[in-house]
Specification:
Elements (H helix, E strand, L loop, with lengths): L3 H10 L2 H12 L5 E2 H14 L3 H10 L2 H6 L3 E5 L4 E4 L1 H9 L10 H19 L8 H41 L6 H29 L10 H14 L3 H15 L1 H43 L21 H11 L9 H19 L5 E2 L10 H13 L9 H13 L7 H12 L3 E5 L5 E5 L2 E5 L1 E5 L1
Parallel strand pairs: 4-7
Antiparallel strand pairs: 1-3, 2-3, 5-8, 6-7
């Protein structure tokens, strides 16, 4: 077996292996890859090596067992024959090549906003005292989060600038389109630009625009309000550093605005082509329908080359469309498309909430431990409770105790922590009873399957 540091060094030295894996994942929009794809990529790399010593070293380092042991492969689904790499490892290799970086989309930016909003409300409920462990924990998490956000925005802006330059240069070099293949390539490039514009540039500008009217608080405003909390309680240095992060993130607005302006003419070009294609297609369908009508036995007054007046010409539709793509598009500061999209999202959310959702099964992947404050509260409840043997099922007993006392703070995952702490107190003998099927507890649309624990004297 080879240690983690040596394995990472070898992966970086032969980074084309990881590049091929990342390209496959991006092409198929996956967060994992089939084992056969990984094996095929590794085999191709080994066959390209001439030194037998290098082959043996890479075989041992890049072997599935070594990558799992070092934590580079985080998951191996044997039933589906898929493996998943650590997201951090993939992001490191994306940094080596801007073309393989992933841009921040609306869900990613919304996740950042939710994180900031959560830390804001946590700070509002905190006692600002350096001796308070909860305050120290949240303060450390805040600065870690701000560093991550600043780094993500910086990488995202660099990636978008690179993509804009790459795609625009590809279009500018194709001045003459002489073949159908070239025409399709240009159309695909224009579509790619439109997708980047709609899915990444516009959401990022809205994220960085503190003047945009919205039903939720802008992330930059949240950062300012967190800074104001620190300033109000006398932590002036921390408040200053938080504002510095805010200013640093805000400055990217000008850079992304330049990228937007550079792509604007290609967006207009894509719209113009789309209108032309639609008009030609409609004209073709109309002519096709006319041909179908001539295929009858009686052709009287139905000749296809019958003369039409100006208002009956089927290509007259092109003139109507010409006005649309010759008129300049007006851009307003207020993005109405954003508001309409937000309205659709809100309607969709209400419909989804009104529907009956399926229960979520609790396992190691979605297990959430309570925070320090709740841990102390749970331990206090267990110590004060009057649970005495014999008890048929300690899970059910503690579940009712937590529902009654923790109320809205209670999540079903916390029951596992409570049972473990109850066993540590050793108030009696706890015996595991294995049953098939396992017992179930349901709470707030979540299901916990477990083996019964009997509490005896």
């Amino acid at each position: 077996m080879i240690a983690l540091d040596r394995t990472l060094i070898l992966l970086i030295e032969h980074k084309e292996v990881m590049f091929k894996i990342i390209d496959y994942m991006d092409e198929h929009q996956l967060y994992e890859i089939p084992i056969e794809v990984f094996t095929r990529t590794l085999k191709a790399k080994l066959n390209s090596l001439k030194d037998k010593k290098d082959k043996n070293r890479l075989t041992e380092a890049f072997g599935k067992e070594n990558l799992i042991r070092t934590g580079i492969i985080s998951e191996w689904n044997k039933s589906r024959n898929f493996i998943a790499f650590q997201p951090t490892i993939l992001e490191i290799f994306r940094l080596f090549d801007k073309e393989r970086m992933r841009g921040l989309r609306r869900p990613d930016l919304e996740k950042i906003r939710v994180q900031l909003e959560a830390i804001y409300w946590q700070h509002k409920a905190l006692k600002f005292d350096i001796t308070n462990p909860d305050f120290r924990e949240n303060r450390q998490y805040l600065f870690t989060l701000l560093r991550e956000i600043s780094s993500q925005i910086d990488n995202n802006v660099k990636y978008l600038a690179y993509e804009a330059d790459r795609l625009s240069s590809r279009l500018d070099n194709d001045n003459e389109i002489l073949t159908l293949d070239k025409s399709q390539q240009v159309k695909a490039t224009l579509l790619q630009i439109k997708q980047i514009y709609d899915r990444q540039i516009i959401p990022l500008l809205e994220f960085l625009n503190t003047y945009e009217n919205s039903k939720v608080k802008n992330p930059l405003i949240l950062i300012k309000e967190i800074s104001a909390l620190y300033s109000m309680y006398g932590y002036e240095d921390d408040a200053h550093y938080i504002l510095q992060y805010n200013v640093s993130i805000t400055t990217y607005h000008k850079e992304i605005e330049k990228v937007k302006q550079s792509l604007q003419r290609y967006i207009n070009q894509e719209r113009k082509q789309r209108l032309i294609y639609n008009a030609i297609e409609q004209a073709y369908l109309n002519l096709q329908e006319l041909v179908k009508k001539t295929t009858t036995e009686n052709l009287k007054d139905k000749y296809i080359f019958k003369s039409f007046n100006e208002y009956e010409l089927y290509f007259k539709g092109l003139k109507a469309h010409s006005a649309a793509y010759s008129t300049k598009i007006k851009w307003y500061e207020r993005n109405h498309a954003f508001y309409f999209e937000e309205y659709l999202i809100e309607k969709s959310t209400r419909k989804r909430n009104s529907d009956v959702s399926l229960p979520v099964k609790i396992n190691q992947e979605n297990l959430v431990n309570p925070n320090n404050h709740l841990k102390r509260k749970i331990r206090s409840l267990i110590k004060k409770c009057d649970i005495k043997p014999p008890i048929d099922d300690i899970y059910v007993e503690l579940h009712h105790l937590f529902v009654e006392n923790l109320q809205e703070d209670y999540q079903l995952q916390y029951l596992l922590y409570g049972v473990n702490y109850f066993k540590q107190l050793k108030k009696g003998n706890i015996q595991v009873k294995f049953e098939r099927p396992q017992r179930k507890i349901e709470h707030n649309n979540k299901t916990l399957e477990y083996n019964k624990r009997e509490f005896t004297p």
